[in-house]
């Protein structure tokens, strides 16, 4: 994201790609304006939150008119740096890693997995979903040669911290961590942690322990 977005609160910034995807679809279908109610129903964020978020973007919706789709689209593409392709690497070509290599990230946002790394000699040298798999031994060289600053990590938990230390040394700026390991890294490294097993368990827990009336509240808490 560019400089302008540093003023936006983090919870709002996290919703940006969600808004962007919906606004892009509206734009392709030829819509000129959208109300916060329509947006709210589509992206499942309550309209008060949407209005607050959009006020940070300088988008002031008018009563009875809504928001201007063109304005929002150009704001989101600029803020999310959609004109620049962000190259990403993936480390750990197991079941989850392989699924990501086959997933077409570029369809919805301007990121692309450029290459992958693994320690398994059976996987090194192969091409999966158009992405070449290299040996982890050569990771630093490839990262430097290609100026890549973002990594997705899908290795076993036990290997995660050591790889993180190497990524930090190799000037990586952001890690999307799918391992259950809680990683230690300097403050300037941004780590987003997605533990699918924990998310699933938490969903099941909420279904069992909270009534329907509480659901909206829990969704809102999740988003902020
Ligand atoms: P699979 O069925 O291929 O074993 P999995 O997702 O169940 O997949 P994991 O044990 O989680 O397997 O390993 C994920 C991937 O990470 C595997 O491809 C494995 O070779 C690789 N891997 C294991 N240790 C490391 C490491 N230190 N560095 C990089 N990759 C590693």
TrEMBL record:
Highest taxon of the lineage: Bacteria
Keywords: Cytoplasm, DNA-binding, NAD, Repressor, Transcription, Transcription regulation
Major localisation: cytoplasm
Known DNA-binding region: 18-57
Matching Gene3D superfamilies: NAD(P)-binding Rossmann-like Domain, Winged helix-like DNA-binding domain superfamily/Winged helix DNA-binding domain
Keyword Thylakoid attributed: no
GO cellular component, one term: cytoplasm
Annotated compartments: Cytoplasm
Listed NCBIfam families: PRK05472.1-3, PRK05472.1-5, PRK05472.2-3, PRK05472.2-4, PRK05472.2-5
Name of the protein in its database record: Redox-sensing transcriptional repressor Rex
UniProt organism field: Bacillus salacetis
Highest classification ranks of the organism: Bacteria, Bacillati, Bacillota, Bacilli, Bacillales
Gene of this entry: rex
């Amino acid at each position: 994201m560019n400089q302008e977005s540093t003023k936006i609160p983090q919870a709002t910034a996290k919703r940006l790609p969600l808004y962007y995807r919906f606004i892009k679809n509206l734009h392709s279908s030829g819509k000129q304006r959208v109300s916060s109610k329509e947006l709210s129903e589509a992206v499942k964020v309550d309209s008060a939150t949407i209005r607050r978020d959009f006020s940070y973007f300088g988008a002031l919706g008018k009563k009875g008119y809504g928001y201007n789709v063109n304005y929002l689209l150009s704001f989101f593409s600029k803020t999310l740096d959609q004109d620049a392709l962000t190259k990403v690497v993936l480390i750990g070509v197991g079941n989850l890693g392989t699924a990501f290599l086959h997933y077409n990230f570029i369809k919805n946002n301007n990121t692309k997995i450029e290459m992958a790394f693994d320690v398994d000699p059976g996987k090194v040298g192969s091409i999966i979903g158009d992405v070449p798999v290299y040996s982890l031994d050569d990771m630093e060289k490839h990262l430097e040669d290609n100026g890549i600053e973002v990594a997705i990590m899908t290795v076993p938990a036990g290997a995660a911290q050591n790889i993180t230390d190497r990524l930090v040394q190799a000037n990586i700026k952001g890690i999307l961590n799918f391992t259950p390991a809680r990683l230690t890294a300097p403050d300037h490294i941004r780590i987003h942690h997605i533990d699918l097993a924990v998310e699933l368990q938490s969903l099941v827990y909420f279904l069992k322990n909270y009534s329907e009336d509480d659901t909206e509240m829990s969704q809102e808490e999740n988003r902020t």
